[in-house]
Amino acid sequence: MNELRQASDRAVMTEVVLPGVVEPAGLQIRQRPVPAPGPGQVLLVMEAAGISFAEQQMRRGKYFDQPPFPFTPGYDVVGTVADVGPGGDAALVGRRFAALTKTGGWASHLLVPAADLVEVPAGVDPAEAETLVVNGITATQMLHRVARVRAGQTVLVLGANGGVGSTLVQLARRAGARVIGTASLRHQEAVRELGAVPIDYRTHDLGAEVRKIAPDGVDAVFDHIGGEGIITSFGLLAPGGTLVSYGTASTRDIEGSAKWPVLKVVGRLQLWNALPNGRHAHFFNIWAGKRRAGAFRARLRADLTEVLTLLADGAITPQVAARVPLSRAAEAMTLAESGTVTGKVVLVPDTAGEGDHGGLGESLA
Ligand SMILES: NC(=O)c1ccc[n+]([C@@H]2O[C@H](COP(=O)([O-])OP(=O)(O)OC[C@H]3O[C@@H](n4cnc5c(N)ncnc54)[C@H](OP(=O)(O)O)[C@@H]3O)[C@@H](O)[C@H]2O)c1
C-alpha cells in the first residue's frame, strides 16, 4: 500500500453540501470518512475545483437537469489519484488528472470513474488546469466542432470576460479569427488584453456596435445569454454564419421552470436552422452523445488534452480569478456571482491552518 493510500485511509474528508434553494451563506460544510473506491473507480484527492455558472443556477434550482437536493456541487475538478478500486490500474496512483463531474467536485476527496480521467501535463498548476476543464472543453468543441471557425473569419463572443468566454476568445484568436467580445465596462481592458475588440453591452446597442466593426455581419456568434437577445445574435450573422447558443444566463433570476427557457431557445434555433435563410443555428450541450460512452469519452479526452497541452506550452493564459479554500465555498460563490471577476474562481484544499485563512483578498490569484 502506498503512502497516499495510507493517508487517505486514515482521513476524514470535507465536502460542501447544497441543501436546497439557498443564498451562498446557506452552503453547508460536512465531514465524513474518506470512501473506498469500488470497481472501475479511483479516489481523487482534490487540488482544484471550479465554480461555474452552473452552480449559480443550481443554488436557485434553475439548472436544466440538476439532481434533487441535497447534493455536493462541483462541475469539474483536478486532483491526484490516491487509490484505485479492486482490479484497477495501480499505476494511476500519484498522478494528476482532470475530470468533468457535473456535481461532486466541491470535496476534498471524491470517487470518479477511472475512464473519466484526463491526465494533466507535468508541471501545470492544478488551479490553472482547472480553469480549462469545463470551460476548455466547451470552448474548443463549440469553436472547432460546431462553428468550425477558420482563419480570417470574424466571431462575436458574448460574456468575453467569463470562464467560457475568456477561453473562447483565446482559442478563436489562435485559430486566426478576429474576435469581438462583449463585457461590462469594468472588464473592457481585460477583454482587450485577451485579443478581442471589446463592446460594453450594458451601455451600448450591441447590434449597432457590432455592425460598425463588421458591416456584413459575423461568421459566428457564441451566445450563453439566451432570452430575447438571441434574436439580435442571429440577426448579426453574415450569410453562411453560425449561431452557437449554449445557455440562458439572462433567465437565471427569473422564477419558474429550469427547463422552459432552454427548451424555448432550442425550439427557436431549430426553426431558424430549418428555414432557408443561409445561416445556421445550434444549441451546444457538453453532455450530448453521452449515451455512446466510448465515443463521448474519446472526444472529450482528445479535446481537453489539446487545451491542456496549449496551457502547458504557454499558448493560452489561464484566467484564475481567485483561489479560495474549500471550507470557504460560500465566500467563493459570492465572489463568483459578484460580477467583478475575470475568469474563474477556483476552490483549493484547506491548508493546515484550517479555519484561519485570513481575508479572502489574500487568496486572490
Ligand atoms: N451548454 C453547455 O454545455 C455549457 C457548458 C459550460 C457552460 N455553459 C454556460 O456557459 C455560460 C458561461 O459559464 P461560465 O462558467 O463561463 O460563467 P461566468 O464565468 O460566470 O461568466 C458569465 C459571463 O456572462 C456575463 N453575464 C452574466 N449574466 C449576464 C446577463 N444577464 N447578460 C449579459 N451578460 C451576462 C458576465 O459578464 P459581466 O460580468 O460583464 O456581466 C460573464 O462574463 C453559462 O450560461 C453556462 O451555463 C454551457
UniProtKB/TrEMBL annotation:
Transmembrane segments: none annotated. InterPro entries: ADH-like_N, ER, GroES-like_sf, NAD(P)-bd_dom_sf, Zn-ADH-like_protein. Residues 26-347 form the Enoyl reductase (ER) domain. SUPFAM superfamilies: GroES-like, NAD(P)-binding Rossmann-fold domains. One of its GO terms (molecular function) is oxidoreductase activity. It comes from the Bacteria. This is NADPH:quinone reductase.
